[in-house]
Write a structure and sequence with these properties.
Layout lengths: L1 E6 L5 E4 L5 H10 L6 E5 L5 H12 L3 E6 L2 E5 L11 H8 L8 H8 L1 E5 L12 H9 L3 E5 L4 E5 L7 E3 L5 H11 L5 E5 L5 H12 L3 E3 L5 E5 L7 E4 L4 H13 L3 E4 L10 H7 L5 E3 L2 E4 L16 E4 L11 H8 L5 E5 L10 H6 L3 E6 L2 E5 L11 E3 L3 H13 L3 E5 L2 H4 L5 H6 L5 E5 L1
């Protein structure tokens, strides 16, 4: 087990570059199974979840070569299908949430897949129905092996069809798209997710020879092809890191420049922070945040309390609500944070209350934050990271707090943020990793 010890109260200064997007790269790596030719992917973040998936690909028989510090090539020419039925493979899948996206490529190319119930963050129930129902509609048969606790998926030949997804699931849409590109005929997916990361996947598949239209909309049309070829791909910067750094700058009264953010792919994220009163400027493809002693939460036009809620793209990503909640604790004014998409992501607020924050947890989905306007500084404390996003939010709180804080279970943070303490210490933070 590892922990962070944080000395709070230090300002950040300088420039920081966001890592490659975790949520994109997990899809992209799984998609390399759709071809026997080489696919080269750049801007891959060096984080636990991604490294575990890369190692899983090696174990499956995929030839993986590291070309540079953030570039890998994948060649799925000789996949070991027998290994995919082994207990070792299924155990690894159970601890890696992104492994569920192996189903679409495996069924499409090899006609079968096996997967255990994937693990991941403790943020509440995350249904797999969208994945399974979509791939079933393409002609796959699903069976649950109760004795082994695994799903067995088989299909002699996938056939294109029309489907209306019950939810705009990003990973569900990605899985169905990856299955449909090699299906016979035309597949139409309505209520498809349209996040930039899903757009990136579709664009890469088209470069490989797929025929996907409607990219960036919630209506995708996919004409199946016989096979796909190799390509190269560059992963977008991680929008969650960009938002996290905006929050850090505000909470620590810091002047900070976030470099190479792919601003056009940030959607409502900048304006959502502006609603909390945070000043930020777009400078080319960078974001500049000036040092702010105070920031005031906006009200709605009718004077009612500001509500910030997550929603499918182009709404606000749920992965940033934890950060925005922490940022609101030092704002002037009050805000309702409404976490609609997951039921357990707000439970970390008890740790913030222990640090002196004024927060009312209304129910598992809603919290009212009454901002201190810097009149009361958060106190350092001991806490445990329950998931990746709450972990970074607690780190931000600790960086702004008076005194020393300790965050345990930082393996959760490592799953989503590359070498975070070194990068933050380089711009003024005081974070020490303790290995036990």
């Amino acid at each position: 087990m590892a922990s962070f010890v944080i000395e709070g109260g230090h300002k950040l200064c300088g420039e920081i570059v966001p890592q490659g997007a975790k949520n994109e790269v997990l899809q992209i790596i799984c998609a390399t199974l759709l071809t026997s030719e080489e696919v080269t992917v750049s801007n891959i973040p060096d984080i636990l979840d991604v490294n575990n998936l890369i190692q899983l690909m090696r174990d499956m028989g995929v030839t993986v070569s590291k070309k540079s510090i953030d570039t890998y090539s994948f060649k799925a020419e000789a996949v070991d299908l027998a290994y995919l039925e082994s207990d070792e493979f299924l155990k690894k899948c159970s601890s890696l949430r992104g492994s569920v996206m192996l189903i679409g490529p495996m069924v499409a190319r090899f006609g079968k897949a096996m997967i255990s119930k994937p693990g991941g963050d403790k943020i509440g129930r995350r249904r797999l129905d969208t994945h399974f129902l979509g791939i079933q509609k393409l002609g796959a048969d699903f069976e649950y092996n109760e004795e082994r606790g695994i799903y067995e998926i088989k299909a002699d030949k996938l056939t294109g069809t029309y489907m209306l997804l019950d939810e705009a699931s990003v990973t569900g849409t990605a899985n169905i798209v990856m299955a449909a590109v090699l299906a016979m005929g035309t597949t139409t997916i309505y209520n498809a997710a349209c996040e930039p990361y899903l757009q990136q996947l579709c664009k890469m598949l088209n470069r490989m020879g797929a025929k996907i239209s409607g990219i960036a909309s919630n209506l995708l049309t996919i004409e199946g092809v016989e096979s796909l070829g190799g390509t190269t791909h560059t992963v977008l910067p991680d929008m969650i890191e960009v938002g996290s750094f905006i929050g850090m700058a505000a909470m620590t009264r810091s002047e900070l420049t976030i470099k190479n953010v792919s601003y056009e792919n940030l959607g409502v994220i900048p304006d959502s922070f502006r609603r909390l009163g945070i000043k930020l400027e777009q400078r080319g493809d960078d974001i500049y945040i000036p040092s702010q002693e105070h920031y005031e939460i906006e009200s709605f036009i009718d004077g009612s309390i500001m509500t910030i809620a997550d929603a499918p793209w182009p709404g606000l990503t749920p992965d940033l609500l934890s950060v925005m909640l922490v940022v609101a604790t030092q704002a002037k004014g009050s805000v309702l944070i409404h976490q609609k998409m997951f039921e357990s992501r707000l439970f970390f607020v008890d740790k913030l209350i222990d640090m002196g924050a004024q927060i009312i947890l209304c129910d598992p989905h809603r919290a009212v934050v009454i901002g201190h306007d810097r009149n009361l500084t958060l106190r350092g404390g001991n806490m445990t990271s329950p998931d990746i996003r709450a972990g970074i939010a607690l780190l931000i709180a600790a960086m702004s707090a008076s005194g020393i804080s300790r965050i345990n279970n930082i393996e959760q943070i490592d799953r989503g943020y590359q070498d975070i303490e070194r990068r933050l210490n380089a711009i003024g933070a005081r974070i020490t990793r303790i290995q036990e």
